[in-house]
Amino acid sequence: LVIGLTGGIATGKSTVSKLLKERHVPVIDADVIARQVVEPGTSCLAKIVKNFGDGILMSDGSLDRKALGSIIFKDEQKRKQLNAIVHPAVRRAMFWGVIKCWLKGERFCVLDVPLLIEGPLWKLVYKVVLVYCPPDIQLQRLMLRDNSSIEDASSRLDSQIPINDKLRYADDRIDNSGGVEQLNAKIDAFVAGLRREAGWSWVVSWLIPPYGIVSAACILAWRALWRSHKLNDKST
């Protein structure tokens, strides 16, 4: 089972991801991969330099994110150009991460993707899990975390899909409205549920790869139809 984990700013997705790792759940973190694919010596960084010039490099040859950010934030076309370079590399690395989990015989793995719903990846996972808290708590946490004003925090929230809108896409949610003890209990229940759901059919998929590929294709096709029906129902 490939589980897509997402959330909104200040909902606690990173905390949930950390707690899952502590329970030995394999987590493939898109943010970590996004940093790895632009490390010195990578083809991805070479393409970025070719398109944006040597000015986006630091003295040690690593990417100067601030310099690159000052370019792309002013120009939507250049931002799209950068995404066209980085996003495919990240998706490829995540795909191979899933393959490695499968080769190790893992029952399931979690893709930690902040923009899972904003991109196409939510259609390619078995289950979309949303780390959720009400918008008012989200705003309070963001202000406290960044020591920002209500205007600045609200502006950042407004730049994202509202957390309540993301509920339409979620197959499951982890409510992070309470404290740490409550969240730990919910993570325990969530992991136990995944283990039950995986059952023992994963062994057949692992031992007989063609069966696993056909099974995965059928599951994704069925869930694509189910999700389409679900979203149409909620939109009406």
From TrEMBL:
Species the sequence originates in: Lentinula lateritia
Protein name, entry field: CoaE-domain-containing protein
Tagged with keyword Calcium: no
Transmembrane portions of the chain: 200-222
A Pfam family the protein falls into: CoaE
PANTHER family linked: BIFUNCTIONAL COENZYME A SYNTHASE-RELATED (PTHR10695:SF46), DEPHOSPHO-COA KINASE-RELATED (PTHR10695)
Keyword Lyase listed: no
Superkingdom classification of source: Eukaryota
Taxonomic placement: Eukaryota, Fungi, Dikarya, Basidiomycota, Agaricomycotina
Keyword line: ATP-binding, Membrane, Nucleotide-binding, Transmembrane, Transmembrane helix
NCBIfam families: dephospho-CoA kinase
CDD domains, per database record: DPCK
